[in-house]
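Q: What residues go here?
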């Protein structure tokens, strides 16, 4: 079975499973394999739904912060380049991922504080790198809203299922 077919099957399951955070992460992985890892605007809604429907669990933020951290590296490190022919606005993606990393880190820290036994709060490897990057961004002057606003003002909102099925032309 081709990856595109798996992504289509995933979309079909949304009618029954749209309220599960792990289903949205799975969809993100399928979408990444079919359409590419680097499209921030395309993949962000998957992670927003994963966070929202996981009830803000640390594991959903861990996955999201790794994605954001890797995109931030691509956007801000001149030594890292995507293959030719891929449209990628370094400045735009760098700014967007910076602020989104700060936002995600604040929620991640709160979620880990609420339930320190949650396995998603035990970080290692690439998650630690993303957390370190987000902590550095917290000390800079940019992203003031994400750094200082009450968390309820930064809450994630679900993206309607129709957004994902419309992408496929279904």
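A:
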């Amino acid at each position: 079975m081709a990856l595109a077919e798996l992504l289509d099957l995933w979309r079909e399951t949304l009618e029954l499973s749209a309220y599960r955070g792990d289903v949205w992460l799975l969809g993100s992985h399928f979408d990444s394999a079919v359409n590419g890892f680097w499209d921030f605007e395309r993949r962000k809604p998957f992670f927003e739904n994963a966070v929202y429907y996981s009830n803000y669990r640390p594991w959903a933020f861990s996955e999201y912060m790794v994605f954001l951290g890797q995109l931030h590296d691509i956007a801000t490190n001149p030594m890292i380049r995507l293959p030719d022919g891929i449209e990628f606005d370094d400045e735009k993606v760098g700014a967007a991922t910076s602020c989104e990393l700060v936002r995600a880190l604040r929620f991640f820290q709160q979620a880990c504080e609420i339930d320190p036994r949650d396995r998603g709060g035990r970080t290692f490897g690439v998650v630690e790198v993303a957390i370190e990057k987000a902590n550095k961004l917290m000390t800079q002057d940019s992203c003031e809203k994400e750094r200082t606003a009450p968390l309820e003002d930064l809450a994630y909102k679900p993206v309607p299922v129709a957004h994902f099925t419309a992408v496929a032309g279904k």
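A: Context that may help when evaluating the design: The chain has eight helices and no strands. The mean pLDDT is 88.
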